[in-house]
Amino acid sequence: MGIVVQKYGGSSLADADAIKRVARRIVEVKKSGHDVVVAVSAMGDTTDDLLDLAAAVTPLPPARELDMLQSAGERISMALVAMAISDLGYTARSFTGSQAGVITDAQHGKAKIIDVTPGRVTQAIGEGHIVIVAGFQGVSQDTKEITTLGRGGSDTTAVALAAALEADVCEIYTDVDGVFTADPRIVPSARKLDRVSYEEMLELAACGAKILHLRCVEYGRRYGIPIHVRSSFSQLEGTWVVSDTGLQGPEETTMEQPIIAGVAHDRSEAKITVVGVPDKVGEAARIFEALADAQINLDMIVQNVSAAATSLTDISFTLPRTDGQVAMTALARIQAEVGYDKLLYDDKIGKVSLIGAGMRSHPGITSKFFAALASAGVNIGMISTSEIRISVVVDENAVDDAVRATHTAFDLDADEVEAVVYGGTGR
Ligand code: ASP
Ligand code: MG
């Protein structure tokens, strides 16, 4: 039988008992005849605690040292899980990301995996061991430094290992039973999705659903790895993230996919408005070039029609709040050159997104969405769309109401409460 790759998140590894429970689960799979490779996250809120510690030591920790610090969290988990497995009479070998061959680029804090060379992992499997790999970390090919993959990056470690090992499936164990139609912490009546396509999951993850790391879904899609998101606290079948065609089993080929996959929200963004930009060729290019040079990832961009009298226009865009300071500084530097009037910064915003592949073929989704927001008294700040998504920026305090109203308007509420949040602090 083939290789099963599993990933256990921090809330599934919160303390010694949790680690023993996870070890028993892993051993069950081994007993059933599979080879098992497990990627682990740091225990509980360890990563946040480590970051708090760093902030207490210095306001500006060097990126290299932050990665050394954060990567320690996953090392603790991997060793403890391996010990718990040996206590059950099975042998396990733990490896750091670097030892497991997770090769990344050189960007500290948000490194991308560029290759996985799992020689030591396959050797250990061949010798009959269960393999435990520290998630969220790798080693840069160029600098030889330890890197981390960005918050939530252990998911990506798991899927990258699954691809490199040609595993049958990558199981992502978390503290809820799967991917829900909305965050159960906000919408208790959210429904579990049995299946969701890679592209819908990509939009959900990009729009703030924290259940899966965005790049893990990209990886899964590229290599065709089925991802099974499920709870480590129950035996329930979770959500399968699969290709579009995989959504229709043979008996279901005549059935339509649901129109809407879910409602996602994101409170991690800020909005910058560049006020009074001269309406001339090349101005937007100059502004966005400055932001690109500063390595800022932009999300929504809106340019107003310029006022006829003044020939001036406003350009607004959203970006991660953590990049706010850097972006403002980069833009301030080109004020004279561009000749804009001033900059406005607003981090009291939230983004609410409606996602579903069925949008392509069903008219009227947008009007229903906006009607739901209106009836909940939610004012819309910005709008952006893709083929299978509509997103709006709203006031930070209106996010919960907007999510609930939208969820109800699209009949996504379950009859009985299905969503159980088993653990985690949601931090
Ligand atoms: N421990 C890291 C984090 O908390 C990585 C992960 O959990 O996937 O972000
Ligand atoms: Mg974590």
Automatic annotation (TrEMBL):
Where on the tree of life does the source sit, at the highest rank? Bacteria
Q: Which Gene3D superfamilies match?
A: Acetylglutamate kinase-like, VC0802-like
Keywords noted in UniProt: Amino-acid biosynthesis, ATP-binding, Diaminopimelate biosynthesis, Kinase, Lysine biosynthesis, Nucleotide-binding, Transferase
Domain ACT intervals:
272-348, 354-427
EC main group: transferase
Q: Which CDD domains match?
A: AAK_AKii-LysC-BS, ACT_AK-LysC-DapG-like_2, ACT_AKii-LysC-BS-like_1
Which Pfam families does the UniProt record give?
A: AA_kinase, ACT_9
Which pathway or pathways does this protein act in? Amino-acid biosynthesis; L-methionine biosynthesis via de novo pathway; L-homoserine from L-aspartate: step 1/3; Amino-acid biosynthesis; L-threonine biosynthesis; L-threonine from L-aspartate: step 1/5; Amino-acid biosynthesis; L-lysine biosynthesis via DAP pathway; (S)-tetrahydrodipicolinate from L-aspartate: step 1/4
Question: What residues form the membrane-spanning segments?
Answer: none
Q: Which reaction does it catalyse?
A: L-aspartate + ATP = 4-phospho-L-aspartate + ADP
The record's EC number reads: 2.7.2.4
Protein's job: Catalyzes the phosphorylation of the beta-carboxyl group of aspartic acid with ATP to yield 4-phospho-L-aspartate, which is involved in the branched biosynthetic pathway leading to the biosynthesis of amino acids lysine, threonine, isoleucine and methionine.
The Swiss-Prot or TrEMBL record describes its family as follows:
Belongs to the aspartokinase family.
The protein depicted here goes by the name Aspartokinase
- Taxonomic classification, please? Bacteria, Bacillati, Actinomycetota, Actinomycetes, Propionibacteriales
